Amino acid sequence: MRYVIMDLEWNGSYCRDLNGYFNEIIEIGAVKLNDKLEIIDNFHQYIKPIISRKLTNIVKNLTNIQSIDLYNGIPFYLAAEFFEKWIKYDSSIVMTWGTTDLLVMLENCRYFLGTDSIPFLNSYADLQDYCQYRLNLHDGNHLGLSKAAQILNINQDKYELHHALSDSQLSSDIFSNIYKKGTLRKFTKNAKQKEFYDRISFKNVIIKDINNSLINKDDFNFSCLNCQAQLTNINSNAWIFKGRAFRNIFKCPVCGREFDVRIQYKLTYDGLSIKKSISPKIYNPNEQNDIPISISETSSSKLNKRIYTYPDSLATSNI
Ligand SMILES: [Zn+2]
Fold first, then answer.
1. I need a surface site. Which of 37, 240, 256, 317 has the fewest CB within 10 A?
2. Which of 218, 238, 207 lies closest to 249, judged by CA?
3. Distance 246 CA to ligand 1 centre (A)
4. What is the CA(213)–ligand 1 centre distance, in A?
5. Looking at the structure, do residues 107 and 139 belong to the same domain, yes or no?
6. The pTM is what?
7. 90 C-alpha vs ligand 1 centroid, how far in Å?
8. Residue 309 contacts residue 224 (beta carbons within 8 Å)
C-alpha cells in the first residue's frame, strides 16, 4: 500500500474561453508514504500558467511563489503526466486536505486535458474528513491544516505554510499521527466511478427558510437533559436562524428548566441531513435583537431519503 498526499497552489483569474473565473494550478506538491507511513518520496513541480501570467495579490501574499518560478515551470498536461508516472501504483490512495484541491484539479483536467475525471486518481480519501473523525470533531466546521497540527502538538516551525510540498509534508505528519489500522477504509472512495465526481462536485445547501417544504415539524422534539421529559416549545413563532441553524428556547414541563435547542437542515448528495443539539439556556441580553421567524403548516418531504445524524453528545454547544 502507498499513500500519496497532494497539495496544490493555484491562481484565480478570468478565463476568456470559459467566460468565467478559473483556478489555474501553478504548483503541485506531494509526498509518498509506505505502509509504515514513512515518507519515501517527494514530488514538486511549478506549472507555467497560460490563462493568466499575472499572479493575484492573494497568491503573492500567501505563497512564496515568484514569477520566475512559474516562468521556468512546465505546462499543466506535462506536470499531470509526470505526476501520474510518479504515483506509479494503481493501488495508491491519493489524499488531499479537504476536497477543494481535488475540485481544482478536476477543473484543470477538464480544461487542459479535456477529461471528465482526474487521470491519476483511482482511490481517494479526504484527509481532513478522516482527521475530524479521528479527533472526534463533529461540530460541522472544517478543520484547518494548521489548527489540526496545533491540536496534535505538531511543531510547524519547519513547515512553510502555503507552499505545496511543505503543506503536503505537514499533512503527512498529521496523517501518521492520527492513522489507526482499519479506520481509513470507510473514507476511501473508488474514484473510477462517475458517482465519485457527482458527489464531490455536489454543493451542500443549508436550509435557511423555516417554511421550506422539506422541513418536517415532527423533527422539533427534544428531551430534557435533566429528567428526559419531552420539552415543550414556549413560543412556536420564536425560531431564529443563526450560525447555520434554527434556534429556539424549549421548556421542560416537569422540572421547569429551559434549554437552547438548535436544528440544522442540510441538503447533501445523499439527501436531507438533520442535526439537532440542545444545551441549558444561558440568558444573554444581546439575543433580544434577533427577529423571530414564524412557522407555517407545511411539512412534505420531496426527498425520499432523510439522514438523521446527531452529534455524539447532544449537549454540545455548537452545531
Ligand atoms: Zn426536566
1. 256
2. 238
3. 22
4. 31
5. yes
6. 0.73
7. 57
8. no
Distance 261 CA to ligand 1 centre (A): 14
Cα–Cα distance, 259 to 282 (Å, whole number): 8
122 and 245 share one domain = no
- Residue type for position 276: K
DSSP state of 253: T
- Is the separation of the CB atoms in 31 and 5 below 8 Å? yes
- What's the 208 CA to ligand 1 centre distance in angstroms? 30
Is 265 strand, coil or helix? strand
Asked whether residue 317 is assigned to any structural domain, the reply reads: no
Same domain (yes/no): 230, 189: no
Q: Cell digits for 144?
A: 484547518
**C-alpha cell belonging to residue 177:** 499521527
Nearest to 258, CA basis, from 231, 285, 284, 238: 231
CA of 82 to the centre of ligand 1 (A): 64
Tally of CA atoms within 13 A in the half-sphere of 5 that contains its CB: 26
Series of mean pLDDT values for 10-residue runs along the chain (319 residues) = 94 86 94 95 93 76 74 92 92 94 95 94 96 88 90 89 89 96 95 92 92 89 94 85 93 94 93 92 63 43 41 35
Domains in the chain: how many in total?
2
Please give the residue range of the domain that contains residue 270. Answer: 206-308
Contact 128, 97 (CB under 8 A): yes
Q: How much distance in Å is there from the Cα of 164 to the middle of ligand 1? A: 53
Does 70 share its domain with 109?
yes
Q: How far apart are CA 315 and CA 257, in angstroms?
A: 14
Q: How far, in Å, is the centroid of ligand 1 from the Cα of 310?
A: 20
The beta strands (E) that lie in the chain are given as 3-15, 20-33, 39-46, 93-96, 123-126, 188-190, 205-206, 232-233, 240-242, 245-251, 258-268, 271-280, 306-308
